[in-house]
Design goal:
mainly beta; 4-stranded antiparallel β-sheet; 4 strands; elongated; Ribosomal_zn-bd; Ribosomal_bL33
């Protein structure tokens, strides 16, 4: 079952991206480098509740 998640920028704390992920294959929290339009650079984004 795929669940909806929200990714938050670690620099400015804005919630920029909505995604889905499979909890069976990735039970841990997701972290990716994505572009933040508020910081105007690629930063680390972490999964929030």
């Amino acid at each position: 079952m795929r669940t909806r998640i929200t990714l938050e920028c670690t620099e400015c704390k804005h919630r920029n991206y909505n995604m889905t992920k499979d909890k069976k294959t990735h039970p841990e929290r997701m972290e990716t480098k994505k572009y933040c339009k508020f910081c105007k650079s690629h930063t680390l984004h972490k999964e929030t509740k």
